[in-house]
Design brief:
single chain; mainly alpha
Length: 181
């Protein structure tokens, strides 16, 4: 069981690092949006690439931050019975949710997006806009990355649930934290 705990903790560490890193893109989006507005309305200047950076950052925050949000129980959940369950009962619900919903959906996202991203890579696809960013294939790669990161975090969640169900959970869950910039 220590091997499984090590795997789950490694996945958690990976998604924690990615989530905290990607969180900085939200600050970049705010600053760039402010700059776009000031440049457009004060100086009558604008660049497509600058606007695309904002869109790309927004997409990356959601796609690469989804597993981090899952790790911190930040996704929307209908909590009618869950909060009243014991830790073991909650672990059963989390395990069932991971195995029956999360992993199949994340696997489908990975499967369906793989060809989409790989064909973009084969073309080294760039922006359709004149003056846009050249690396659209990099952005499209974030879609399969979303699937991979969610699968990994789903496996971590399943492992933590199994450890709780079997009574081998070494330490209590750390308190929920919000992303700090």
């Amino acid at each position: 069981m220590n091997f499984l705990r090590t795997i789950a903790n490694s996945i958690d560490t990976l998604n924690e690092y990615i989530g905290r890193t990607v969180a900085w893109l939200t600050l970049a989006m705010v600053l760039l949006t402010f700059a776009v507005v000031v440049l457009r309305y004060s100086f009558n200047l604008g660049w497509i690439a600058m606007q695309e950076v904002i869109t790309w950052a927004h997409a990356l925050v959601f796609m690469l931050g989804a597993a981090y949000t899952l790790k911190h129980n930040g996704h929307v959940r209908v909590d009618i019975f869950y909060g009243k369950l014991s830790a073991r009962g909650q672990a059963w619900v989390d395990l069932a949710g991971a195995m029956l919903l999360l992993l199949p959906v994340a696997g489908f996202i990975l499967w369906i997006s793989w060809g989409y991203a790989s064909s973009s890579w084969s073309l080294l696809e760039g922006s359709r806009e004149q003056g846009g960013l050249p690396g659209v294939f990099l952005l499209k790669s974030a879609i399969p990355a979303l699937g991979i990161l969610l699968i990994l975090q789903g496996l971590s969640q399943a492992i933590h649930s199994l450890l709780t169900i079997t009574g081998r959970s070494a330490e209590p869950e750390p308190p929920r934290q919000t992303a700090e910039l």
